[in-house]
């Protein structure tokens, strides 16, 4: 029997062999991966994933910050199956609409912040970002200010990997590849207090970094700036939670200079921070909001841009076609799964549980790790957290890249049963929102064990 024959039983080795020979992975050094072979994941159960050898791992990352309801929600599977058997596909182009996407847009408008009542659908976070970038510039064209084209984002932000999203994002290494990137995009320093606070209080630093946006707007000329983009919490940049003074000041600045504010809620949306959206946790209201991931709990691809009144009024009242959209904008099966996701979030009061119970429990549990010699600082709110690893706490000294501290902690964590991600020397955690108290206890215990093993290894070296 050939390995690619349908139904042929495959061991981890066989999967790895096929994977090496034919599969190019996202964000991967293929040569390095092929030298060791991929971990093959075959099943999910609640908050755990299971690999081809039957090893079970607690999923501290909810897949890629998305499987918010855990892995075996029959309601989501049934919603997809029912929709696929009724109408597997129809588009929303050319004066037609499918019912799940209409219903989803209306349901989303009941949970988005006041005024963000219209939804444009796409399929991935990157596509939602491209949509918001084009929409912001199109808005100013339609408003008779076509010279407002500049977009401002932050260093070390992540907004996706299409060419537009790469151009907008502030990931240095990523930006070096595949250019030239799009023009009229500027970056300012990120609000990372622990790493870059330089003796300022958190509150001062938040205002200071927000005002860099004001300086940039003035340098470019407010009449040339279309929008400021930001993740409420920088996720892929290492879970960087801004000081509480930051976002309200950014909002004030955007209003002052008549610049649109776009919140990239791809990670923070749908309860991750204990509110429906991160902007609600941080106290600001954007003009546009991108969403994806938790929208369908990762079961099917879907994303969207929630559009506030000002931009929606222009689209609705001005008339004229916005030449933008995707074959699968508002795919009926994905929309049906997103509707079922909203039902579960609401019926089971999952977001309230993140805010009042499991979020604080998770944050408190993690902070017991602050006594560990490798843990310099822990950032987090709700069910998202970043742990900064340090060589020494006082004076604060970060590791050299060659120490590979983050990778070591991650590898020990995985060997001990917890999927955790390393972003340089920041450990990222974002477990399913349905994680139990016992599973949080397990998670914290495994992180400590991984830190201990890393300390022993680095000490020995
Ligand atoms: N924005 C943010 C904040 C993200 O975290 C991500 C993905 N991690 C994206 C956009 C891009 O989403 P996608 O990978 O679905 O294109």
UniProtKB/TrEMBL annotation:
Its cofactor is pyridoxal 5'-phosphate. This is Aspartate aminotransferase family protein. The keyword Transferase applies. It comes from Rhodoblastus sphagnicola. The keyword Cell membrane does not apply. Pfam families: Aminotran_3. One of its GO terms (molecular function) is transaminase activity. Belongs to the class-III pyridoxal-phosphate-dependent aminotransferase family. InterPro entries: Aminotrans_3, Aminotrans_3_PPA_site, PyrdxlP-dep_Trfase, PyrdxlP-dep_Trfase_major, PyrdxlP-dep_Trfase_small. One of its GO terms (cellular component) is cytosol. Keywords: Aminotransferase, Pyridoxal phosphate, Transferase. Coiled coil: none annotated.
């Amino acid at each position: 029997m050939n390995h690619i024959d349908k139904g042929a039983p495959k061991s981890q080795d066989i999967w790895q062999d096929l994977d090496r020979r034919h599969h190019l992975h996202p964000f991967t050094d293929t040569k390095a991966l092929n030298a060791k072979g991929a971990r093959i994941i075959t099943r999910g159960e609640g908050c755990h994933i299971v690999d081809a050898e039957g090893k079970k791992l607690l999923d501290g990352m909810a897949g890629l910050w998305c499987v918010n309801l855990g892995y075996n929600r029959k309601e989501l599977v049934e919603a997809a199956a029912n929709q696929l058997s009724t109408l597997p596909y129809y588009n929303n182009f050319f004066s037609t609409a499918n019912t799940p996407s209409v219903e989803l847009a209306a349901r989303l408008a009941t949970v988005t912040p006041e005024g963000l009542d219209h939804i444009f659908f796409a399929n991935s976070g990157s596509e939602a970002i491209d949509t918001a970038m084009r929409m912001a510039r199109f808005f100013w064209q339609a408003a008779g200010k076509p010279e407002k084209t500049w977009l401002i984002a932050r260093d070390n932000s992540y907004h996706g990997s299409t060419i537009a999203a790469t151009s907008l994002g502030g990931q240095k290494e990523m930006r070096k590849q595949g250019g030239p990137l799009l023009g009229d995009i500027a970056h300012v320093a990120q609000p990372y207090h622990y790493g870059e606070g330089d003796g300022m209080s958190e509150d001062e630093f938040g205002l200071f970094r927000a005002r860099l946006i004001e300086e940039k707007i003035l340098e470019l000329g407010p009449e040339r700036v279309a929008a400021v983009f930001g993740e409420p919490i920088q996720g892929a940049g290492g879970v960087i939670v801004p000081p509480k003074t930051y976002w309200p000041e950014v909002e004030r600045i955007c209003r002052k200079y008549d610049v649109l504010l776009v919140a990239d809620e791809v990670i923070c949306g749908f309860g991750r921070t204990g509110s429906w959206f991160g902007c609600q946790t941080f106290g600001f209201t954007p003009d546009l909001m991108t969403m994806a991931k938790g929208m369908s709990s990762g079961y099917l691809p879907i994303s969207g841009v929630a559009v506030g009144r000002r931009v929606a009024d222009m689209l609705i009242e001005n008339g004229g076609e916005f030449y933008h959209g995707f074959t699968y904008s508002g795919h009926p099966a994905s929309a049906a799964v997103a509707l079922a996701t909203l039902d579960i979030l609401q019926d089971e009061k999952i977001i309230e549980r993140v805010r009042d119970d499991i979020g604080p429990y998770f944050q408190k549990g993690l902070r017991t790790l602050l006594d560990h010699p490798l843990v310099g600082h822990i950032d987090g709110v709700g069910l998202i957290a970043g742990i900064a690893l340090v060589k020494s706490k006082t004076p604060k000294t970060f590791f050299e890249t060659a120490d590979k501290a983050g990778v070591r902690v991650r590898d020990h964590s995985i060997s001990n049963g917890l999927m955790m991600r390393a972003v340089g020397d920041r450990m990222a955690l974002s477990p399913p929102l349905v994680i139990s108290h016992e599973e949080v206890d397990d998670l914290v215990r495994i992180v400590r064990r991984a830190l201990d093993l890393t300390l022993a290894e680095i000490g020995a070296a």
